[in-house]
Structures are given as structure tokens and as C-alpha cells.
Amino acid sequence: MIKSALIYKTVFPSLRQRDVQYKRVPTEEDWVSAKEISDKLEVFYLATLQFSRTKYPTANTYLPSVCNNRCVISQWSTSPIEETRRMALSMAEKFDTYWTDFYGIMVVATILDPRYKMKVIECYFPKIYGDQTSDEIQKIHDLLLRMFREYEGKSKVGQTSCASSSGDPINVSLYQSTMIPSKLNPLSLFDEFLSFTPPTNMKAELKIYLEEHVIPRVDNFDILRWWYTNEFRYPILHCIARDILAIPVYSCI
């Protein structure tokens, strides 16, 4: 509505001449404030589009937008326009109230996205928490570790795949037998072998995953397929991802 009003800025003075009930024409200062607020609110409009443009809004893709919005709100609190500062303070208070209730699962889901891992919170948390950044990152790491240990216990201390209904140990040779060499890429067989080979030390699985470089961000990345392909490299994390990524983002908020 504000954006539409800005288009007809020059019409408002004429409206006063045609409508006797219209007694207050916006001043130039009012229009400056309206333009400022309209520009600021656009970031939330774009975030809303991101949430609504997909039928399957998994929780792993929205943390950067949410964190970015919080950083933007902090910037608004230093605006020279009083209305913007008041709006920012009110938004920050409401954001922080809800943030503490839902951010844990959303952060874990994002860490389980190989495009982000821990790097995403290492980027945004300093801007949100300031001096408390180390403590907040440690809380997330502890949460992830507790989840890993819980799932590890369910899979017989990491000796079997929790995705296996029979409970038998992972038979890597069985999966290797399905590999088909490629004439065009002689290393395709090797790459597939690596994707099927689990870490030698199951307790180091989480550490290995977090220490590996994030993969490049590409359009139409299918995170479910990525975890399906890498199930035998990260059997415990695969089970966590299977459960966490099944949660729609709306259930995390």
C-alpha cells in the first residue's frame, strides 16, 4: 500500500481540492519516511516469496534469509529517521522472542545441508550475538552432538545402518557390485566407490562431515538425493537428515 501511494505522490495535493473531508496532505518529510519504510519492508516481502514459492519448504534453506533479516533490523536501529528506529526496536523484540523457540532445529537442518554446514552460523551469529557468539555456536554444536549420539545408539553404536530394516552390518561390497564403469569418465567408478565407503571410524563421522569443504551452491540442488547418495559415507548423519529434513519449515517457526 505504501509503495502504491508513493507512485501517486503528486496527486495527493489535488485530492484536497476535490474532497473537503481530506484535510491533511502528507508533507515532504512524510514522503521521505514512507519511502524509507517501503524500502525497508521489501526485504520481508522477498523473504515471504522464498517461503511460499515451493510446495516442499524443507527447513534447510531459510536460515540465511532469517539471519539476514535480523542483521538488517539491527542496521535499522541506527537510522536517522525516528519512525524507522522505533519500528526496528519493535521488530527486534518480537524476533528475539520467537527466535529462541525455533532456531535450534532450523540451524541443525541448515548444518545438514552440505552447501552450508557450520559455516553459515559462523558467518551470521557474530552479527546477531556479538560477544556471545562463541557460546551460541557451542550450544548448536552440543545439540548436534547430542542428536548424533542418540541416533548412534539407535544404530547399535554405529555398527549398523539405521536405514537398514534387517539390522545387518553395512555390506559395502554389495553396493560396489552395482557400480557400472563409464567409458567417458574413467574416474566415475572411483567417485562412486568413495560415496559408498563409510568412514573407518564411525565416531569421527560427524567431525569428518563438518571438516570437509562445503560443496558449491548450484541451482536446483536436491539435498534429499545428496543424502541418499552419501548414506554409506555418513550413515548416522543420513538418519538425522532423513528425519530433520522431513520437517516443513513452517513447523520450525
UniProtKB/TrEMBL annotation:
Residues 52-151 form the hAT-like transposase RNase-H fold domain. GO terms for molecular function: DNA binding; protein dimerization activity. InterPro entries: hAT-like_transposase_RNase-H, HATC_C_dom, RNaseH-like_sf. Residues 205-251 form the HAT C-terminal dimerisation domain. This is AC transposase. It comes from Dipteronia dyeriana.
